[in-house]
Every structure is written in C-alpha cells, then in structure tokens.
Design brief:
single chain; mainly alpha; 1 helix; rod-shaped; SPC3; transmembrane
Length: 48
Amino acid sequence: MHTVLSRANAILAYTVSVAGFLTFFCFLSTVFLDYRADATLNTVKVVV
C-alpha cells in the first residue's frame, strides 16, 4: 500500500501537469490571433 504522502505527491504532480497542459493550450489558442484594429478619430473645431 502506498502511504498518504506518496498518494498526495502523485495527485499534486498530476494536477500540476494538467494545469501546465491547459496553460500551454490556452497560449497556443491565442498566440496567432491578430489584435490590431483600425481606428478613426474625428474631431470638431475647438473654440476657446
């Protein structure tokens, strides 16, 4: 039988591995998106 510490270590290692995979997947899903946008700014005559 495995000890509680050994089981906790395995669960923690699995959790960290899954979190790392999800982080990398989120990075891959957003790294190639183009965030540039066209912007136009119209001004009126300013009277002081």
